[in-house]
Design brief:
Layout lengths: L7 H50 L7 H13 L9 E7 L4 E4 L15 E7 L2 E10 L4 E8 L1 H36 L1 H11 L16 H49 L4 H32 L8 E4 H19 L2 E6 L3 E4 L1 H18 L5 E9 L2 E8 L29 H11 L3 E6 L6 E8 L5
Parallel strand pairs: 7-9
Antiparallel strand pairs: 1-2, 1-5, 3-4, 4-5, 6-8, 9-10, 10-12, 11-12
Helix pairs in contact: 1-2, 1-3, 5-6, 6-9, 7-8, 8-9
Length: 454
Amino acid sequence: MIKAANSLRQKLLRWLLVALAALVAVGILTDYFMALEPAREVYDQHLLKLAYNMERSLPNEPEKWHDAYPQIEHNLLRSEQDDYDSAKAAIFDVQGQLIAGVADLPIQVPTADNKPYFYEAEYQGVPIRVVAIKSPTLNAVLYLAETTYKRNRLVQKTLIHMIVPELIFAIFSIVVLWVGVGRGLQPLAQVRAQINDRSETDLSPIDEGQAPVEIREIIVALNSLLARLDHSLKLQNQFLANAAHQLRTPLAGLQMQLELASEQTPEERAQSHDRMLVSTRRIVRLANQLLALARAEGEGEVNKFITLDISTAIEDMAAEWLSRAYAKGIDLGLDLQPAKVNGSLWQIQEMLANLVDNALRYTPSHGNITIRCTQQHQDVLVEVEDNGPGIPQEQRENVFNRFYRLDEGPEGCGLGLAIVREIVRHHGGYITLEPASQAQGLIARIKLPSMTVE
């Protein structure tokens, strides 16, 4: 099943048309009551005037009303008869007994204040409007009824005269809304055209032009995204170029050693074997570092954060570090306290492995390395301290750049600290390199947000 397109134009028009239809409906309803009330007032006054004329035409003696009523009705009511309306009248005494007129006319006793009383009823299935006047001098109630055809016709004519301009206005408004919404969304079409005309490599900013404020904010946000994407692609291209350059050197050396192997003496082949082994190890290390950096920058289940204790992670990896330190005659000490963080286990392990690996590589034989972790209020502190040659202050920031290596010391690929900083940033922390507390050496200090607050 194909899902209907989610059109902004349709949503805007739908809401505007609903609001317009509601306004027109309220206007028509208001017009109806505005037309009904004047028509009722005019015809009620006319009906009341006829009732008073009939009252004044009646003889003062009640016994003569019955004989006088037909002539009064003929003189006053016959002129009111037409193809649309007819009038009926009746006179009842205060006890409700018919004196003269229509006997089955529906009656209601007026209020005691002797004011004219209007009400609506039906007579022979036809709606009527009735006025009742109580005459204290005659001691009787006069009822005068009139059908409502003329009233309704007047209301209809008035309503038509009022509704027609509103409908014309509504139609005009619909046309204006249709054109206005289309023109209002035109800047979006222009932005879409700019994007469609671009190549996949064009990440230059989109021209804001004379776009409205709301669309300009979208363009600014999109340009910001394009700038970040362009920066990311440049870093990626630079990374790939550096990686290719770093791989080319050991591969070229390995190829050369293999090509010369057939012409070398056994002693020379032994030396070539050692050089090929060094090149192979460097290639393997570089490949592993590149994979680790790519995994740290990516997303997925492998980077899912969990609650973990860094002290436990250090203890799990300590056996390998101790064996390397023992082989080099280095005193490796652990000062661990529980330190819980919310993070990726493999990233934390990779971070620790790179820090300790650098310390083991640069610390001379019979040196000292201390690994610490503790929880301080809202932070977890991780430190790796050694008494190696250290890093000059002017180069401490540069060593976090990818493929940057110090001139002295053992050869590496220049990615270890770059991976560490990427992982630390991913976990919301920061890393600093500071002089060791001893005469020489370095402290790599990391602070990460902790899971608990003391």
